[in-house]
Protein: Pleckstrin y domain-containing family H member 1
Organism: Melanaphis sacchari
Amino acid sequence: MELENRGLEKSLSSSPANAMQIVLPEPSHPPPPPPPFNQQPAKANDEPIYEAVLPRDEDNVSPPPLPTPPHKLIRAKSPAIESANRSISPAATAAALSSPRQSRPSSRTSGTGGANWKHNNGFIEDTTERDQRRKFRVEKKLQEMENIQEKMNVEPLHDNYHDILEFAENYFNAHERSPEGTIIATLKRKSKSLEKIPMYEMVSFHRGSTIPTSHIHMYDPDNITIAISIFRDLCKYTRGDIKQDNEVQIIQSIIGAGINREELRDEIFVQCMRQATNNPSIESTERVWLLICLAIVAFQPSKLLYKYFVSFLRKNLQCEGKLKQYVQWCLDNCKNTKVSCRQYPPSTVEIAAMRRLGTIVCRFFFLDGRTKAIDIHPTDTASDAVYKLADKLCLRSIDGWSIYQSRSDGEEHVRAHYYLYDIIAAWQSKQQIKQTTQSSSSFPSLSRRSSNTTLTSGENRFIFKRRLFRHSREISQDPIEVNLLYAQAVYCVVKCDDFPVSEKVALQLAGLQCQVSLGDPKESTLEYYADVENYLPFRISRIRSSDTWVPILAQAHQQYGAGRSEVMAKVLYLSCVMQYPLYGTTMFHVTYRGYWSYGNTLILGVNCEGLMLIKPEDKFVMYEFRYTDVESIFLDPSDCFLTINLMRHQNDNASAHKCFVFETQQKSEIGSLIVSYCPGLAGWIIENEAPVKAITNDDRIRLYHNVINCRRNLIDSDMLNKPQDTPGSFLKNTLRRLSKHKLEKLWAEHIGSLSEHGETYKGFSGSYWSFSRQPISQSLSRLSEQDEQIALQMFHIILKYAGLGQNGEVVRRAEDEHVTLIQNVMERSMRKESLLCELYLQLIKQTTEHPDPNSRVNLRHWALLSLTCSVILPPQRNIRKYLIAHLRKCAGDCVTEEGKYARFAEKCVSKTQGTRRRQWPPSREEILCTINRRLIYARFHFMDGQYHAIEFHPSSTAKDVVEIVKNKIGLRKTAMGYAIYEVLGNSERSLVAEEKLADVMSKWERYRNANTGTANTSKPIRKHSHIFLFKKHLFLDQYMDLDDPVEKELLYHQVLHGLRCDRFPVTDNEAVMLTSLQAQVELGDCEDTILEYRQVSCHCLPSRLVTNIPNEDVAMHHQSLRGMTSAEAKKAFLNLIKSWPLHRATIFDVMQSFTSNWPRVLWLAVDQAGLHLLEHRSRNALCSYEYDSILSYSPAVNCLMIITGSDKKQSKIILTTSQAFQVANLIREYTEVLQSPQAFKKREGGGGGRKNGMNGSSSRPVSILHKPAPAIELQT
């Protein structure tokens, strides 16, 4: 085998018969003839995909050694090194296994003889001297490891021992001794003087089940409450009084709390260490150590606790039996070097494995149906599993190979840093939810009995295959990799149909595949070819019946595969598939959310060179972009949208499309794959903020003095209330009751020197400006008596939102209640400028010098400050300077979350400055986005029914968002005249350019809440939802460009909407022609059979005309359009619309009563020429007014008055309409554009200059909505 392996590199040109006999693990069961492709094991539904029990001899007194964690194992770089390591003498191997840390359980394999592959294929060196040197180095290393182990076992307490009692004296809270379970206990709790528990008792076993507060000092009351609850559950679990299912739930809840809250991790370890020390019950102690073993692989102790925790473990190594194995496990895993902690609490399978001192055996599937089972450590990531699989398969290179998880909802790549135990826990969680849903109430006892610790494979499994194809056109020299690539190629051709394979090529490939599976063809073996779907893609196999394909496959086998060796057949198969341009391209089915003529359903291909847009029918590549042409990619955080922005200098056929938006459920998978090929496009992964440059100490001092100077300016301005508290009130209000030594130590660690904060300026000490846990007794600024009470209520609400209630008690609030609290504070402060200044002073105070910058209390205060900065800024100049100085000082912190919030708030201040004042408090959507340091998310709809998800800043105006939408849909930057409308039911309103969209969303929320609160539940109410609509607003000649395909498509759909809404006077003949043109666009050429056109007419005609259209006339016109493309039909459709001179006008329904000569109901058309009054639903214009003849216009709620004529003779027109303000705004916008200097240059025949001053003709109509600038007489 050794010579055979060395000669395989030359086997790609020649075909030795016995070359590739041992290449992959054998199938998990003998395959029937013929071996079916991609056949799963016969017991796939019952065979466990991962197991919790390792086989061992139950008669042994002491359990076997535990596996070594992956970070302490040395990975082999090549099979040669591994084979050399195996050549060491058995005595050295036995010495290596003397310590429990050095052994690993043997791997399981479903194949036969798989354990000897690496030894058989290894390269054995013949040089004796090299072997002796290697043997000497290994023996020396083993001797050093033995010495270290002996030192740990003999002298565990004399080598840098750190007693947990020292940690307790420095960081523990003082607990009051209180008897439990009696009435006396309740009475004694109310007494003022209670005995303190000495620290040596707080690190030893506690017989009770409750503690008054957390062991470690915490600043978040919510964490304290959870810590007390954890200790209660821990005591209940260690006593063993509950069922096994409840034990599992308690273990998962405790470890889950540590995963979700980093502040609780040390508290969990301390509680477990306490209950494991001097515990009189062996069973109780084993339960505690089981929890510690599960916790240590889920998260690590902090740097402060680590040395005490390690000393605690070394001290307990003196235990015997199972406890010693538990301690050794914790000691081996207490220095995990992984980047992140676990994301899920342990599954029942992991808990069962740890109870038996074992690991989980996971089964990995290959694309040819074979499997491999290996042991997985709790800290093994997907990258570690790839290394282990490559080691067992003797795969030389793992470049591009990855692990996928196959679920019922699809296949997903497991990222390299994901823990496999987390994936298993997620599977189990979903499976339990599914089982709970299915067996809801019928037979609950049966569902409880069916729970076990071993999950069957079911629909979840791990798959090993290649993900990255960097050199996709090269045949690998590794025979193992050739086998894996061949199986993946067969899967892509037959099952996925990823390549445009013709029938002839498919038969050639099928013949080679038959040669690999069946060997040389034999007589009377046609039944071997019965499974046609395993050899041909469904697109080709469906052409004929299975009986027809069987002899054809047999002939293809004889013609293309006979006489070829297995390795040659595989290489030929790969060589043929590699000729396709799509080989090595990962394909994702997406929906294009844009405007073009290729259809919206397509395939997005990702390969090592760039991106492809592929037609799904024939795999035709429409567009191809290299990564150098891609500017950025963006994954929508709130919707299934993926945005790809191209460089602006590209000059290919797709230059009109600079932004592609795709809708797909696999957006994260696509983004991750693109970044794997091109790391430069990873901007969507990194947090949306510029890299923080560490500041120097001089900068910190300068920023600190800026804050001090701003405080003194505020004091000198005489706008602050002088504090009445004593200088020591800061410690009293901020910190818990501690000894003098602890107070000084905490102050020095978290706050700074005493001299710095002891400075008092004009009676204002440091406590006035710093964080306070208690409600303030007076407002910070000088307010009236009534406003001061509101200010105190505002501060109380801030404490509630942060999690601090009265007297520091925690107040748990749901998300909606949090939003209500924030809106309450914001609404009160926005009513009055003095209260707004007071709010900023309170928030700056609560975010200053917090003892724990990363605590949830501090981060909630910062979230509220960031939200306030994004909504409205303080009107007082000194407070605004103080705010900016405070943010700059805190933004220099590049480590904590506080610094991130400070930088985000600083951006919000810069965006909010100079913008229009907000009218409404923030909406729920805005609050939830901003407090998470995200932009606001909203959907913007289009006239064709599609929508795009857009993110924008809370201070963004309608003009800003229009530019974002234009870039999103690929509309050119010079396109003008577009606007955003707010739509409710049948009414719509265009937003003014300077109007903030966040204000509009807040107004919508108020409207919905008001209707919900006052609605009568007895009557059904038709609910209308507000939406944003993007469409053309001003139809001027210089704003129209039908050569732009995007604008042409937008105008086409806007015209269709106007026709459906009956805003276009259509005759019967025009209705027939429009329907036929629309049928040509939607249906294509007319067939011989007469179609039903009512559905088509509903898309382009008002409902009153649909029933009157004769179907035969439409069919006749449709037949005359045969051969016309969709683009030509749309152009003819728009040309027909242009036959009406007012086709660009905006139509409003109005009523008039000033003359009896006209009908009462009219149409008011507004366009670039002026105003036009028409008969309703008619082209007959009654009168027209140019903008120069309009002197003024005054809108009211349901009325619009227009004064026309000249200064000498005037006429008044009064129209009744609910859209009076919309008409007035449209008139103002048209006149502003037409009277601009650019418009003057484009107008022809503009003879003579206009008079200036009040006596001359006005340059624009006068309106209460637009006041003209005062005329300035030029003096000579």
